[in-house]
Fold:
Amino acid sequence: MINFVFPRDFLWGVAGSAFQMEGGMYEDGKDLNIREVAWLDAAKRSAVEHGEEKGLPELDANWLNPESPSKFRDSRSPEVGCDFYHKYAEDIELFASLGINTFRFSIAWSRIISDYGAEPNQAGIDYYNRVIDKMVACGIQPFMDLWHSDLPRWVLNHGGFVSDEFVSWFSRFAEVCFREFGDRVKFWSTCNEPMLNAYGPYAMAMGAPGMRDLSLGLKAAHHMVLAHFEAVRLLRKMWPDAKIGSVHNTSRYYCLSHEPADTAAAARYQASQFLLCDPMILGQYPQELLDYEPFAKNIPLAYIDELKEKFIPMDFLGLNYYQPGFVRANDGTTYGARGFKVDLPTDAYPFRTYASGLYDLLLDLTERYNGLDLLVTENGYTQRREDVYNMDLTPFHQDTKRQEYIREHLRACQRAIRAGATLRGYYYWSCMDVWESSMGYGYPMGLVAVNFDTLERVPRESFYYYQRIVKNNTVD
Structure:
């Protein structure tokens, strides 16, 4: 049997996020975030449609787009979630029993600063101090995302990413977090998947405010990059020994033809994944996009100059990899390319399973970013709960497919390291079943199963499989 041994200092972790795990939507001074508002909006529309009165709160969200209503795959509320807000101590102890040396989690912006111009919320600060202290006590290095897709509703109520105030709002939030938690947190990420969660909502109607305006998408992305620079600059000043990066959704795109138009389209589409990575790492927009006039004409020259002026390098890149993509040329689209499906195994979502895509991506990014440290910050496998009101965990316990998924992707990671990739760590998503945004509770991804009626936690077989990998620093 061939064993795939990892470097001795490799980071082994699991990942989760505040808005998907904590619950406590209204507790201790927290305001709603846009994910919670979107769910409440969908629930309210459903109530009206069925003539029911559910007593849901007024949303006061003028950015909700009635032309693109929120869609969720189940109707269960995220109000309690995993109840990590109250169960964090026992959960962190459970994660520690995996043998991991790091846990990636996030800080809910709306729990720290709950309204426009509000003073920091001490109850929220106290809560995260308790969470971080518990991690440290359990021998787990905290990796904290400042923003993991859960923008406070007050931010969007006052203009969101396209507001000229966004950078100052984010910088103030970052400064509070660095001041309060920086003595114990030495790994930070400024943002999670900003391509989906900053650019996407304005350019591709991917979430609130549900717009399809490329110029606004680019403005939102540019403001997120500038906010990232300010946070990096702040951390360097306040805690110079800490590390900071950002986390991006990344697929490896392939072209299944040798036609020049198709290969050029695939290169552009791959570069579109780096629309925010390249500015954060290299201080410039992807050259492949700048060379493509139909797209480049939309980027103001002032943005290009401002990147050069404000740029400050970061320490690592986190990549969330779930599946590959396949593209061909298609004139008239944003990047002159369009994706198509290929016959690959899928999980329940369905994500297409192709571990070699992770191998190729790690080597590509090592070369593109001149040996910058890389972390796989998310990688995971979904199952399907057909009835979200049936919380029987038995059908999901023997998750052989998840174990196979972990094995093949970690083999790809180790092969990439041997080939020269600068990969320093791996975080499985997710540590436990969570509220998966639009998927709700219907697609369990956790190493730990959660009964969302009783809040019982039950480790799956994959939990013990990953535990053996971490203990041995080796995947079979």
